[in-house]
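agent: user wants the structure for UspA domain-containing protein from Desulfurobacterium indicum. delegating to structure tool.
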Amino acid sequence: MGFRKLLVAVDNFSASFGAFKKAVEIAREHKVPLTVINVEEALPLLPAEKMLEAPPDHFVTDDPLTVAETYAKKHGVKVKTVKKTGAIAGNIIETANEEDADLIILGDSGIKGVEKLYLGSIAQSVVENSERPVLIVRKGWMNIEDIISLAKSLEKGEKKEEIPCKYDPALVRENFKSMGTLFFILCVIYFFAAIITSKPFKNIAALEIVGLPFGIWSGIFLVISGIILTRIYINKQIGGKTQ
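agent: tool returned. relaying tokens verbatim.
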């Protein structure tokens, strides 16, 4: 009995893409669809932990699902991509059940000893908790130079032409004028609130309006005015850029 559906997990690093390449080979050989899952951790690893799990020289791509989909289609394999967030092993097992996969294929980073004891192993966790068969592809077993080349070409293709920034004196003067006007208005409101709450005007500041002293109301008005003026400035900037 052959396979009907496969599931492979990918991340940004080479170990997972070794497993992915093996998954593509099996899917093409058996003429079955392939589901590719990428799980983003709810609580990402610290930089030091990432260095242990996957050193920088093993980095492949920032967009593993796009690379995987492009590569699989290029080799005639029907592919479905799934993006999830949360516990990696749990989401892999859950997706395998949802997709009714006959085989889960995972890459092993190859960490051993204290590092593995500290970081744990996603592959090991899936093997121990999944009722479905799991194939582990050791790091370095598959040559993924073609996938790395594809990832680089896709990255270059996504880069947009940069528009050079031009200095426009008229625009600078207009921005300075509008910013200065709003800042002046805010200063006037601020000094009004400061004067009202000063000692010579303490009787005025103590006058109650709707249950609150006038001094408190002047402070509230200052805060609201600051928010409104800031919003006006931001809207003006956005409006200017879209014209």
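agent: one observation worth passing along. The longest helix spans residues 214-242.
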